[in-house]
Amino acid sequence: MAxxxxxxxGTSVGTIERIERVARKVIAARARGDQVVxxxxxxxxxxxxxxxxxxxxxxxxxxxxxxxxxxTGEQVTIALLAMTLQKLGCPARSYTxxxxxxxxxSAHGKARIARIDPHQVRAALDAGQVVVVAGFQGVDAxxxxxxxxxxxxxxxxxxxxxxxxxxxxxxxxxxxxxxTADPRIVPTARRLDHITFEEMLELASLGAKxxxxxxxxxxxxxxxxxxxxxxxxEGPGTLITYEEQQVEEVVISGIAQNRDEAQITVSGIPDHxxxxxxxxxxxxxxxxxxxxxxxxxxxxxxxxxxxxxxRNDHERAMEILRGRQKDLGAREIAxxxxxxxxxxxxxxxxxxxxxxxxxxxxxxxxxxNIRMISTSEIKISVVVSEKYVELAxxxxxxxxxxxxxxxx
Amino acid sequence: MAxxxxxxxGTSVGTIERIERVARKVIAARARGDQVVxxxxxxxxxxxxxxxxxxxxxxxxxxxxxxxxxxTGEQVTIALLAMTLQKLGCPARSYTxxxxxxxxxSAHGKARIARIDPHQVRAALDAGQVVVVAGFQGVDAxxxxxxxxxxxxxxxxxxxxxxxxxxxxxxxxxxxxxxTADPRIVPTARRLDHITFEEMLELASLGAKxxxxxxxxxxxxxxxxxxxxxxxxEGPGTLITYEEQQVEEVVISGIAQNRDEAQITVSGIPDHxxxxxxxxxxxxxxxxxxxxxxxxxxxxxxxxxxxxxxRNDHERAMEILRGRQKDLGAREIAxxxxxxxxxxxxxxxxxxxxxxxxxxxxxxxxxxNIRMISTSEIKISVVVSEKYVELAxxxxxxxxxxxxxxxx
Lengths: 408, 408
Known about the structure:
Two copies of one chain form a homodimer.
Chain A: E1 3-8, H1 16-31, E2 35-40, H2 46-57, H3 63-87, E3 92-95, E4 102-104, E5 113-116, H4 119-126, E6 130-134, E7 137-139, E8 145-147, H5 152-163, E9 168-173, E10 194-196, H6 197-205, H7 213-221, E11 226-230, E12 238-241, E13 254-258, E14 261-270, H8 275-285, E15 290-295, E16 302-310, H9 311-323, H10 325-328, E17 332-336, E18 339-345, H11 355-365, E19 372-376, E20 379-385, H12 389-399
Parallel strand pairs in A: 1-2, 1-9, 2-6, 3-6, 9-11, 10-12
Antiparallel strand pairs in A: 4-5, 7-8, 11-12, 13-18, 14-16, 14-17, 15-16, 18-20, 19-20
Helix pairs in contact in A: 1-3, 2-3, 5-7, 6-7
Keywords (chains A, B): Amino-acid biosynthesis, ATP-binding, Kinase, Lysine biosynthesis, Nucleotide-binding, Transferase
Binding site for substrate (chains A, B): 47, 74
GO molecular function (chains A, B): aspartate kinase activity; ATP binding
């Protein structure tokens, strides 16, 4: 008998019919002899409806009261799912975050889980109940209701799985697993049976919006096997574990693209020590996150600095730098938001040289100009013109033979 | 500095605009130097919306989960009201029933309050906060969310006022107080400044649907001065206290009418001991509540028994009795749902003889036939044909000079 934590997002519980579909999946898992804890989000649209009410009152309502308000969304879902399970003859019991309890810090709207007391949940499981827990929410040490921030239901699922020492945490979404590339771009993209936490972290942060980054970090930290699978299709999904459990000989696991960034180049700055700090300091002070940074070798006593920020912050970052152009002594400040970042990810890179060279050669043979490069132990990212995204991803997918299942 | 508990119902908090109106009333009370605890219901329509979701799942969803579901209604309102108060510059803090905590028994859907720990609320008040509490809900000793049943927010207000030893519990409704008669029937009906708990109980149970009966009982039991007043109009409302605080010399406080009942007459039953039990036993067994009962003096060895039930139960009660007509040896079973009960209520009756005689004479002079009579220490009720309701109420209102303020 295994203990499984299943997490269903807002789309999966968006209607009474869909809640019944979820209930039947839970019952099927139970019929296989497993104990099941189900974590659910608010019905899709509900959190926005509640936030809409709050915004009619104030543009910045107090975070404590926002949490009291929006935590009702998941509370509604747990009650409806428990009722549905009961109607279908399956003993079930709902728990709010406060009832579990899931103890968090007091950072309303972005609380972090401090600890979970698994005592009550375990007792209910041992009594034959399916336990239905409200995702995304907790309670601080003083009894105030908190929320973990958007998408936090994944984190609830993983944290509960860790606290209960569950055999697996299954994240049900609207895709049936993690793919070697975006199937909308690469029709031959292949669902991965298995991927490591590290790879998933790189893929998640690079735009494959399957899982919340924090929940993957959490799962990795507590070594909770994580499985991504579809609410709407049958299938094994993709299992995410540590490398040592992986038996496949894969160099590249997947390709991710990200169109959310914009590029800024500050050129012709006198090349004194501290140039990067003088350019990026004011940007950081405005709470704008910088992703890739490239500084060219100085030429004629001046240097160029290029970096990327989120597209939403592009205008603001440009304004800040224009306001300091004189101070910096920069010749020009140029921006471009029509860019994309393309990344190859794979733990196999560690032991396989030449991946970067191969990537650059593939892109060159397609006539795609690389503007920036950034590498880590298990990924290589390049920035290219946005118009090349599809071409680049398809060419790389084919060159690295990602459409073929790896040898075992 | 007084401590006031204010309770606002679903209509009073039905929209964001109305919530702001409530907030301004709370702030006005605070500006008078009072500490304020506000108890609110779910926004009008919200509880029904949630119950509608539950009914799509099952006709009889488990009561524990129904409570988890519908308690979110008040939770939304407390957050919105607290945000509104904060926006208007008034420190405020919301509390669910579980957070206060309001401890109840475990009778989901109709829980009774066992005790309230006023510690947290008092600390927040002393810190200068307005405390906003979710009505209608509590938590049992095991941490399960419970609800007090429909209209239970009044009870929450009174119970909190009792636990906090508040100076007054103000129930805000859509009427501006308790009237000597229904103003839609008697245009000269007068708002009472003051009424006793006993009178209010009689009036409440007789159809003046201003207050929940249970909350009046509760207020009487714990001697919490209760004030009924309007959310939408300024005015002192009606204060409800114990008799000793009343200085007015009033015989009759008000007239109530009730059209919710139907009459059943079982006639020609052989007059043996236990007739009433044999007729009413089966009705009670079917969980049908019987209000007035009159048994006529036996004639020719047979007797007649007449009683009233709620109109919704009339058909069912008739069927039960028809099924037992042979056993009872009754000659006839007749029903009439076109009846009304009219009641005079007033603690002054205790010391004033002749009220009943005067009432009967007034009705007789209008040609109104009395079908049943029932009296208690502070009320006289008569059943008449429904068509006479307005005539009877107006005639009595005038005869007892209820339109004139009493001498002091």
